[in-house]
Design brief:
Helices cover 45% and strands 20% of the residues. It contains six helices and eight strands, in the order αααββαβββαβββα. The strands form two sheets. A six-stranded antiparallel β-sheet has the order 5-4-3-8-7-6. The protein has a two-stranded antiparallel ribbon with strand order 1-2. Helix 2 packs across helix 3 and helix 4 crosses helix 6.
Length: 207
């Protein structure tokens, strides 16, 4: 790949990543400032990304991620689940609680993979596709901590379901992913170190 083409691709990816982190969209001027690029370069990037549906502009001229990104996300999700399921299964069997992988979608957390333990008589039923604000529950708290550059595990009680306790840890070191591994139970809280180990194991599998 020619150096100029590689540089254009790198700039386009940086622009998409910046939009993914933003709230309410950004103007071309704001994009140019944040990326330290000239406005003509930004407009050339936007022209291509608009044509491909990866970005869109609203009536006020602000730029947002486009619906073309959904097709990419849907293609990645099965691969993410495939990598996560063995780790979650090991964790669920280890601690006797329902294990899950939660990913960020804006200000919400989305459960994309869930594994229930096989040997317990009672455990929390938690369905894939469940969505909740990141501000509620251990899984969301872990993702917010990831955004803040923090680590460790996080605990919550009764924030998503009465009587349910949760422990979660962020998946650190995967630049394209904002996610956490967690467990939820009606019983005593499992050891947070087990959850931390599972998050590290998943990060290594995705590296």
């Amino acid at each position: 790949m020619a150096a100029e083409s590689a540089q254009t691709l790198e700039r386009g990816l940086r622009l998409l990543r910046l939009l993914a982190e933003g709230r309410g969209g950004l103007t071309p001027t704001e994009l140019a400032k944040e990326l330290a690029l000239s406005r003509p370069v930004i407009y050339r990037l936007l022209t291509t990304l608009l044509q491909e549906g990866f970005v869109r502009r609203d009536t006020e001229g602000r730029v947002h991620l486009g619906f073309g990104m959904l097709a990419l996300a849907q293609a990645v999700q099965p691969l993410l689940r495939a990598a996560a399921l063995p780790v979650l299964r090991k964790l669920a069997e280890q601690v006797g609680a329902t294990a899950h992988l939660t990913v960020a979608e804006g200000d919400d957390g989305l459960a994309v993979a869930v594994v229930e333990p096989s040997w317990t008589t009672l455990h929390v039923a938690y369905r894939e596709g469940a969505r909740h604000p990141l501000s509620r529950g251990a899984a969301g708290q872990a993702i917010l901590a990831l955004r803040a550059g923090e680590s460790g595990y996080f605990v919550s009680e009764g924030q998503l379901q009465e009587g349910a306790r949760g422990v979660a840890a962020p998946v650190v070191g995967v630049p394209w992913l904002e996610a956490s591994v967690g467990v939820v139970t009606f019983g005593p809280l499992p050891d947070g170190d087990n959850v931390l180990d599972a998050a590290v194991e998943l990060a290594a599998a995705l590296a």
